[in-house]
Amino acid sequence: xxxxxxxxxxxxxxxxxxxxxxxxxxxxxxxxxxxxxxxxxxxxxxxxxxxxxxxxxxxxxxxxxxxxxxxxxxx
Amino acid sequence: xxxxxxxxxxxxxxxxxxxxxxxxxxxxxxxxxxxxxxxxxxxxxxxxxxxxxxxxxxxxxxxxxxxxxxxxxxxxxxxxxxxxxxxxxxxxxxxxxxxxxxxxxxxxxxxxxxxxxxxxxxxxxxxxxxxxxxxxxxxxxxxxxxxxxxxxxxxxxxxxxxxxxxxxxxxxxxxxxxxxxxxxxxxxxxxxxxxxxxxxxxxxxxxxxxxxxxxxxxxxxxxxxxxxxxxxxxxxxxxxxxxxxxxxxxxxxxxxxxxxxxxxxxxxxxxxxxxxxxxxxxxxxxxxxxxxxxxxxxxxxxxxxxxxxx
Lengths: 75, 310
What we know:
Largest interface: A-B, 35 and 34 residues
Structural class of chain B: alpha+beta
Oligomer: heterodimer
Shape of chain B: globular
Helix content of chain B: 40-55%
Order of helices and strands of chain A: HHE
Order of helices and strands of chain B: EEEEHHEHHHEEEEHHEEHHHE
Radius of gyration of chain A: 18 Å
Number of helices of chain A: 2
């Protein structure tokens, strides 16, 4: 777990805080932390698409054979 | 099959009549169909391994968070406010923070990450529009119970019960939506696993009676939880009328079999289904010491198909 550099309370500290004591701003801080992580993940995924996709993995296009959300541009 | 009220939280009904299970859900049917002995350990006696417990806790917390998101949206919240409600719920459902800490994939931070990523990647601009019930509530976490018109030893009809994660419109067709979390790859092989698939057939059967119009198949929203990231995939479930008739016919035979095992107070082992079974180590021991193995390696959970998930 990496600390959020701009926050006065770190992400690990937020995770070890009782949820009922977390303010809305602190929950938002957690959400923002993971949104930033997703942006990095998606960027890395685009750069190295085969890194996490084993050979032979197909992504069918029709409903009957299922769509990948990657195909739909959702990830 | 006759319909009973879809919301059964206040329904007073005994799940068991002695050793006879009267109210069945997909989990108990799954166990019974795989191996009567597994059914005895997991359902009748309620034994759960710690690894299974992590999967269940992670899955329930994920479902609960997404449920809160949809409820917040239906109450008028925007995506951001609903996401805050969902994340707060996921944090609450896994507090104290030691509940999931022993698993590298299904950890508490990875749960929160998966919730945030799923909501942003899938739910935010979802092509599935959640059905709003007559009560004004969204059709999320819909608990159902329906009579099966099959007499049981208690004198009542057997019942099929369960929970459907969400019901919504996808291109003008009403479908059930089932959320899945997995550590494995999500691809066409993963989705092919759901046909045939007892749980999906069970939901398909319930779909005939729990919505204002017939449900035409289902959608599986799968989340792959990795150590460093989460990926998502969507698959479709369809059953023909012939397939459903076959599933109901088999259900009747399986209920009859379960009755005969309960009468004999003996649930035979299917030793061709041991490969991925949590109880393999127990069944590998001498029958005389199995109780001690269960007590030392498993915990007990109460299983009630009529109980709403929270």
